[in-house]
């Protein structure tokens, strides 16, 4: 049987938006739209950019517009290769925008959904731990600047075409020095990855993000978030009360990983690793003990996973939904979307 070729993306003439040429709209959601763009004064060899701009009715809402300002301020503070770099931000005719490098790649959510009919296909242990160490480094840099992400989840992790790991979507971050009001009430972020203190409405800090990261790494390893149940209330109850059993996949040469991940998922922040740098050191120590000290082959293996996912599902977008849309941050789902599109 001859495979059906992917449907070509419809190209339109580039539109002018301030200092930018909008080459192609890559997606649109409830709050924002994202374009592949170039600067109008672009020189030969300058890379393309991802330009996200708020939809006009969102830009007119002061509360929603503050989410944009929060993301801009967070990205301005953080200088780390894991955190997607802010290139430019501003307004054109009253419409706020933010520009970042165009990285390509897929979300971790997309990479994991690589089994038959989109079923979860876990990563090998060494790749999941490498991904966790990279994200821990990025979170450590964010926390050092007073930024707590609050929404670490598979849809907010980008794996570039080169296999580099990036953390995106700081739209609901807690940024020191900014008012903490966000749109809507209740739990911020995707509840399957929330920490117990988030659910209880208690103070949060960087250790809250590390709990969420632990849930992401476990899902990357096992194909399911560690506390996920069929409904929201059951999941939230398990996050607050359940202690995960030891994972058989993490025995033998990976036994230390069992201990590190269980420590990340402890209910009390004081009982977890205390900062991203310490966590990254622990995870890399586990990798080194298992003869995976060199990160280069691990990056290549992640790049191969992205490429394989694209070959298997050519319709997979290079943009990701939550970052693109800036959707309602109180939305109680488990971070799954039928059409995922990638911001940067």
Unreliable stretches: 1-11, 181-186, 319-344
The number of distinct helices, counting runs of at least 4 residues, comes to 11
Q: CATH topology of the largest domain, which one?
A: Transferase(Phosphotransferase), domain 1
Order of helices and strands: EEEEHHEEEHHEEEEHHHHHHH
Number of E-state strands: 11
Please write the CATH class name of the largest domain. Mainly Alpha
Calculate the terminal CA-CA distance, rounded to whole Å: 35 Å
CATH architecture of the largest domain: Orthogonal Bundle
Give the spatial strand order of the biggest sheet: 1-2-3-4-6-5
**Shape call:** globular
Instruction: Determine the mean pLDDT.
Output: 84
Describe the structure.
The protein has 11 helices and 11 strands. It is an alpha+beta fold. The chain has 2 domains: 15-101, Phosphorylase Kinase, domain 1, CATH 3.30.200; 106-318, Transferase(Phosphotransferase) domain 1 (Transferase(Phosphotransferase), domain 1, Orthogonal Bundle). The strands form 3 sheets. A 6-stranded antiparallel beta sheet has the order 1-2-3-4-6-5. A 3-stranded antiparallel beta sheet has the order 7-9-10. A hairpin with a 2-residue loop joins strand 5 (88-92) and strand 6 (95-101). It is globular. Mean pLDDT is 84; it is low at 1-11, 181-186 and 319-344.
